[in-house]
Design a protein that fits this description.
With 807 residues, the chain is α+β, with helices and mostly antiparallel strands. The protein has 30 helices and 29 strands. β3 and β4 form a beta hairpin. The radius of gyration is 35 Å and the shape is elongated. InterPro entries: ATPase-cat-bd (IPR021993), ATPase_P-typ_cyto_dom_N (IPR023299), ATPase_P-typ_P_site (IPR018303), ATPase_P-typ_TM_dom_sf (IPR023298), ATPase_P-typ_transduc_dom_A_sf (IPR008250), ATPase_P-type_domA (IPR059000), HAD-like_sf (IPR036412), HAD_sf (IPR023214). This is Cadmium-translocating P-type ATPase. Its EC number is 3.6.3.54.
Length: 807
C-alpha cells in the first residue's frame, strides 16, 4: 500500500523506512530531510504547526461574507500587481501589510511564529511601532489570500499598504482611541466624586443606605468603562490565552477582573472596600497612554508622511478653462497648472513655462533646481518662482515619493538582535509577574485578605513589559525616517546597526569623491596666426560626441559656435575626432593623435603634456589646448575629517590608471589609496580588510562598483550613479552630498544611545517599582499611573531622534 509523507504529502518510496512518533501515532517520511524538519519542530516545541495544518478550524464557517469576498481579489493578478512587488529572479512576491490588533511584542511573536511555519513563506517580519509586516512568499506554494486568512484566524486583520486606505484606517483607530479616553475620563471623574464621599463618610460616618446607593451608582458607571474603554485589553488578553502564550495585557486584565469581581462582591455583601475608582482610573491612564502611542506611531507612518507632503487639491487644465480637483482624482496624462509656493501633486514633465523647484524633501539638497520645458518634476516637491504646466506621468503609489516611503517603511521593519532579545525577555517577564503576584497574595494573606488583594492588584498593574518591548523598535522607526530626511535612503535592513560598527571607509574616486563631470578650467591659445577661433572649431568637432570630455568642451565653447561646413567627421576610439572644416583637416583629442597631422618635433616638445588636457590642431600644428578637471564633490574633506576624528581609517579604491587618486589622497588627507584596480581586485582588497576583523563602509557609484558594494558590511551608492550600483547597495545617497553621510553616522550613534537609555529606564523602573508594590507601598491607582508613564517615557524619548527634522 502506497503511503504519503507526513510532512510534505509526497509519496514514500517502497524501499525507504523513516519514521517518528508524533501526536499519538507513528508518522512516516519520504526522505531524511522531511524527517529532520519535523524533528526540529518537535525539538523547539513547534509541533502546533501540524495541529494548525491538519485540524479543521471550527471558525471556518464563521468567516464574514464580505471578508471571504475580499479574500478572492488578493489572488487576482491585476490587484496583486498594485499591492505587491514581484522578484522574477526566484519567482517570489513581496508585500507590505498593515496588521490591525497588535498590542505588544507577544502579538508579533505569535504572528511571526505561525507564519514562519507555513510552507512557501520565505520571510515574515513585523514592526511593533508601526504595526506593519513585510512578507515574502512563493506564489506556487501558497496563495496570498491564504496568508491573509491565517492572520485573520489568529485574531488580527491584515490590509495592503495602500496609502489612502491605510490613512483612513489609521485615522479611524486614532478616533476610537480618543473616544475611549473621553469615555473613561468622564466616568472616572464621576466615580471619583462618589469615592470622595465614601472616603469622607468612612471617616466621619455615613448612612448605610446612602453608602450602598453610591456603590451601586459607581458600579453602573464602571461597567461601560470596563467593557467599552477597556475592550482592547480584554480582546488582546483573550487572543493570547486562546493561542497559548502570555502578553502584557494578561496581567492587566487579571487585575481588572479581580478588582471588578471583588468590588461587586463587596457591594452585594456590604463589605469594607470597593475598587471602582481604581478600575476607572487605571483604564483612563492606559487609554491615554495608548492614544499617545497611536498618535506617535501614526506620525511616523508612511501614509501620514505621504498625506503631510501632498496637497489636498490640484488645478487641472481643460481646453478653455481650469478647475480645482482632489489630488485623489488626478489621472495619468492630465495637464496640471502649478503656481508658485504650491506642492507638485504628481510626477510629471513640464510642458509650458520655466521655474525653479525645491527638491530638498526628496534629496536633502538645499539649493533649488532650475526647470524648463521637458524637465521632470517630482511629486511632493515645491514650486518656487513661476507658474508652469505639467503633464502627469505617475500618480499615487507609482510616484517616486511613494516608492521612497515604501522603502523607508520596509527598512523600518528591520529588527536588530537586541529587539529579538528584549521580546523574549518581555515574554518571560509576564510569566514571572504572575508568579510574583501569586507569592504576594500568599504573603499578605497572613496579614489580611484586604491587604493581600490590594497589593496583588498593584503588582499586576505596575509592571511594564511593554516599555521593555518598545525600547528598541520605536528608536529604529524614528532613525529610519531621520535617515531619509537627511538625504540617505535606507534599502537594506542592517544599515542602522552596521553604521555604529564601521572601522574603515572605502571610497571609489570618479563620481564619488569627484563629481564625475569634467569641466574646462583653462584654455591656452598655442597659435596666434590662425584665422579661425579654435573654440569655434572645437565646438563643431565635439558637438556630436557623448564622451565626457567632448560634453565638457562643447559646453565651454558653445558661446563661440559658428556655421562653418563640417564633413568627413570620424571618431577615433580613445584618441579623438577628425573632420574637414571649410575643406581643411582638423583634429581634437590626445596630444599624440593631433600631432600626427604635422611634422613631429617642430613645436610638440615646447608644449607641456598636461594631465586631462585636450588639444586641437591642423596640418600646420597645434592651435590650442583645453585643460579639464573632475571637480571634487562638495564636503568630501568634511567627511574625511569626520572619519579621522572618529578613528575610522579611509581608503580610495579606483580603476583610474593615472596619478589623480594619489593627488586626491594627499589633498583630502586620506590614509590609503590603490588605483588602476579591477572590480575583482576591489573585492579582494575588502576581503583583506575583513581578514583583519575590519568593518567596512563602501561608497561608490559605477557599474564596476557593484561587486564591491555587495561585499561590504555597509554600502552606500551615490544617487547620481548607475542603476546597478544603487540596486547593489544597502543605502542610496539621495542628495549626492557627502555631508549627509556624516549626518548618517550621527543619527546611528544617537539611535544607539537612545536604545540604551530606553532599555536602562525600562529595567530600572521595573526593578524599583515591583518591590515597592510587593511591600504594599503603592496604591493601585498609583500603579496604573506609573505603568502608563513608563511606556510614555520610552516613546517620547525615542521621538527625540526625529524632533530636529520636524521643526
Amino acid at each position: 500500500m502506497t503511503q504519503q509523507c507526513y510532512h510534505c504529502d509526497q509519496l514514500i518510496p517502497n524501499d525507504f523506512q523513516c519514521s517518528l512518533y508524533l501526536q499519538g501515532a507513528e508518522r512516516f517520511f519520504c526522505c531524511y530531510g522531511c524527517h529532520a524538519v519535523t524533528q526540529t519542530l518537535l525539538d523547539f516545541n513547534l509541533s502546533d504547526y501540524y495541529r494548525y495544518r491538519d485540524s479543521p478550524n471550527p471558525k471556518a464557517e464563521q468567516l464574514p461574507e464580505d471578508f471571504l469576498q475580499d479574500l478572492a481579489r488578493y489572488d487576482q493578478p491585476a490587484y496583486q500587481q498594485q499591492i505587491a512587488v514581484s522578484h522574477p529572479e526566484d519567482n517570489s512576491h513581496e508585500i507590505l501589510l498593515m496588521i490591525q490588533g497588535i498590542h505588544c511584542a507577544a502579538c508579533i511573536w505569535l504572528i511571526e511564529k505561525r507564519l514562519s511555519q507555513i510552507a512557501g513563506i520565505k520571510k515574515i517580519s513585523v514592526n511593533l511601532t508601526t504595526q506593519r509586516a513585510i512578507i515574502i512568499w512563493q506564489e506556487s506554494e501558497i496563495k496570498l489570500s491564504k496568508i491573509i486568512e491565517i492572520i485573520y484566524r489568529l485574531g488580527y486583520q491584515a490590509l495592503p499598504d495602500l496609502q489612502i486606505e491605510q490613512n483612513k484606517i489609521s485615522r479611524q483607530e486614532k478616533k476610537q482611541a480618543l473616544i475611549r479616553v473621553g469615555l473613561s475620563g468622564l466616568m472616572m471623574m464621576q466615580v471619583m466624586m462618589f469615592s470622595i464621599a465614601l472616603y469622607l463618610g468612612g471617616w466621619s460616618g455615613i448612612d448605610k443606605a446612602h453608602e450602598q446607593f453610591i456603590r451601586w451608582c459607581s458600579l453602573f458607571l464602571t461597567i461601560p468603562v470596563l467593557f467599552i474603554a477597556g475592550r482592547p485589553f480584554f480582546t488582546s488578553a483573550a487572543r493570547a490565552i486562546r493561542n497559548r502564550y502570555l502578553n502584557m495585557d494578561v496581567p492587566i486584565v487579571a487585575a481588572l477582573v479581580l478588582s471588578f469581581i471583588a468590588s461587586i462582591w463587596m457591594t452585594v455583601q456590604d463589605g469594607k472596600e470597593v475598587y471602582y475608582d481604581s478600575i476607572c482610573m487605571f483604564i483612563f491612564f492606559l487609554s491615554v497612554s495608548k492614544y499617545l502611542e497611536i498618535t506617535a506611531r501614526y506620525k511616523l507612518s508612511a501614509p501620514f508622511m505621504y498625506q503631510a507632503l501632498m496637497p489636498l487639491t490640484a488645478t487641472i487644465c481643460h481646453e478653455m478653462s481650469e478647475s480645482l480637483i482632489s489630488t485623489a482624482n488626478i489621472k495619468v496624462g492630465d495637464i496640471l497648472l502649478v503656481k508658485p509656493a504650491e506642492v507638485i501633486p504628481a510626477d510629471g514633465v513640464i510642458v509650458q513655462g520655466d521655474t525653479t523647484v525645491s527638491e530638498s524633501m526628496m534629496t536633502g539638497e538645499s539649493f533649488p533646481k532650475a526647470k524648463c520645458v521637458g524637465d521632470a518634476v517630482l511629486c511632493g516637491t515645491h514650486n518656487i518662482d513661476q507658474v508652469f504646466k505639467m503633464r502627469v506621468t505617475e500618480i499615487g503609489t507609482q510616484t517616486l515619493l511613494a516608492e521612497i516611503l515604501r522603502l523607508v517603511e520596509k527598512a523600518s521593519l528591520y529588527k536588530p538582535q537586541i529587539i529579538e532579545t528584549t521580546h523574549k525577555i518581555a515574554g518571560y517577564f509576564v510569566g514571572a509577574v504572575l508568579l510574583i503576584a501569586a507569592f504576594t497574595a500568599w504573603f499578605w494573606s497572613q496579614v489580611s485578605w484586604e491587604e493581600s488583594f490590594r497589593n496583588v492588584i498593584s503588582v499586576l498593574v505596575i509592571t511594564c513589559p511593554c516599555a521593555l518591548s518598545l525600547a528598541v523598535p520605536t528608536v529604529v522607526t524614528c532613525a529610519t525616517y531621520e535617515f531619509m530626511r537627511n538625504g540617505l535612503l535606507i534599502i537594506k535592513n542592517h544599515v542602522l546597526e552596521g553604521m555604529n560598527q564601521i572601522t574603515d571607509l572605502v571610497f571609489d574616486k570618479t563620481g564619488t569623491l569627484t563629481l564625475g563631470l569634467l569641466e574646462v578650467i583653462d584654455y591656452q591659445l598655442l597659435n596666434t596666426d590662425t584665422i579661425h577661433d579654435p573654440k569655434a572649431l572645437a565646438y563643431l568637432l565635439e558637438k556630436h560626441s557623448e564622451h565626457p570630455i567632448g560634453c565638457a568642451i562643447t559646453a565651454y565653447c558653445k558661446p563661440y559656435a559658428s556655421q562653418m561646413a563640417v564633413s568627413d567627421l570620424k571618431i577615433h576610439i580613445n584618441q579623438g575626432i577628425e573632420a574637414l572644416i571649410d575643406g581643411q583637416k582638423f583634429r581634437i583629442g590626445k596630444k599624440s593623435f593631433v600631432s600626427a597631422l604635422f611634422a613631429k618635433g617642430r613645436d610638440e616638445a615646447q608644449i607641456q603634456d598636461l594631465k586631462k588636457s585636450c588639444y586641437i590642431g591642423n596640418e600646420s600644428g597645434f592651435l590650442a589646448c583645453f585643460t579639464l578637471i573632475d571637480p571634487l564633490r562638495p564636503h568630501a574633506k568634511e567627511l574625511v575629517a569626520y572619519c579621522q576624528q572618529r578613528g575610522i581609517t579611509t581608503h580610495i579604491l579606483s580603476g583610474d590608471p593615472s596619478l589623480e587618486p594619489v593627488e586626491i589622497k594627499e589633498q583630502l588627507g586620506i590614509d590609503f589609496v590603490k588605483h588602476n584596480v579591477t572590480p575583482d581586485e576591489k573585492v579582494a582588497y575588502l576581503e583583506n580588510l575583513y581578514a583583519q576583523s575590519k568593518k567596512v563602509l563602501m561608497i561608490g557609484d559605477g557599474i564596476n562598483d557593484a561587486p564591491v558594494l555587495k561585499s561590504a558590511h555597509v554600502s552606500i551608492a551615490v544617487h547620481s550613479g548607475t542603476a546597478l550600483a544603487k540596486t547593489s547597495a544597502d543605502a542610496v545617497l539621495l542628495s549626492n552630498a557627502l555631508k549627509d553621510i556624516v549626518q548618517g553616522f550621527e543619527v546611528a550613534a544617537k539611535a544607539r544611545r537612545l536604545m540604551i537609555q530606553n532599555l536602562t529606564w525600562a529595567v530600572v523602573y521595573n526593578v524599583v517599582a515591583l518591590p515597592m508594590a510587593i511591600m504594599g507601598w503603592i496604591e493601585p491607582y498609583q500603579a496604573a499611573l506609573g505603568m502608563s508613564a513608563s511606556s510614555l517615557v520610552v516613546i517620547f524619548n525615542s521621538l527625540r531622534l526625529a524632533q530636529k527634522a520636524r521643526h
